[in-house]
Amino acid sequence: MVHVEFIGAAGSGKSTIHTELMSEDFLYAGAAHYYDVSRKFRFPIDKFVKLAPSRIRKKIWRSCILNDLVEFFIKYPDALRPIKECEENKKIMNLFLKWCSIYIHNEKTKKKHEWNFMDEGFCQTGTSICFRSNIECPSKSYLEAIPQPDILILVISSPHLCQERQMARKREQVYDTSTIELQHRASENIANWMEKRGTRVIKVKNNEGIKHSVNNIRRELREYKI
């Protein structure tokens, strides 16, 4: 499978661009958060799960991903060690476990020519580690332990625009511009690290709306040799 991830500061437009790209028939979206629930019970209950109380959602989610997590950490045994050291690690841990289960599930079920097209992913989790720990790059041990993406899409927007987008979406937490700048520096450092090791990095400046950004990414993805 072709492993694709997005990375960038909060409000840069990662999820919006990802959603637009999913209209392309040559791409395959990453599995939904509750992919295993539908697979297990043989009917689509994603909407039910999202409306269910938090404690029920967590119980279903944990029961469904356990086997996938076991498989992931057998293959990538060192991947959790750096995250355990991170401050406020509960949120990051939950995010990281989600990507682990989605990744290994897609690796098992997708063919070589299909796309594991993840909105954010392991690299973005590295950015989360950085701004919560006030550092500009995650540890080498973390970067070496995670699955390396074939393509990494780095989305860049001005800090003030990122902040405006967060406020427009009424996010619970709107980051100040200095935190957004730190997220951007961390994202660039991770992208540079991955590029030196063979990942194809697509850099997108998303300051003037997404149409131009999406068209540029479409063109590069279509040219990618599987």
Low-confidence stretches: 28-46
Instruction: Report the span from N to C terminus.
Output: 9 Å
The assigned CATH architecture is 3-Layer(aba) Sandwich
- The strand order across the widest sheet is 2-1-3-4
Percent range of helical residues: 55-70%
Count of helix runs: 11
Quickly name the level 1 CATH class. Answer: Alpha Beta
Strand content: 5-15%
How many domain units? 1
The ordered string of helix (H) and strand (E) elements is EHHHHHHEHHEHHEH
How many beta-strand runs?
A: 4
Sheet of most strands: 4 strands, parallel
CATH superfamily: P-loop containing nucleotide triphosphate hydrolases
Q: Average the pLDDT over all residues and give the rounded result.
A: 80
CATH fold-level topology:
Rossmann fold
Structure report:
Mean pLDDT is 80; it is low at 28-46. The longest helix is centred in the first third of the chain and has 22 residues, at 54-75. α4 crosses α6 and α9 (159-168) crosses α10 (177-196). This protein has helices spanning 14-21, 35-41, 46-51, 54-75, 81-84, 89-109, 122-133, 140-145, 159-168, 177-196, 210-223, and strands at 2-8, 115-118, 151-156, 200-205. By secondary structure, it is of the alpha/beta class. The chain is built from 11 helices and 4 strands. It has a single domain, classed as 3-Layer(aba) Sandwich (Rossmann fold), CATH 3.40.50. A 4-stranded parallel β-sheet has the order 2-1-3-4, sandwiched between helices.
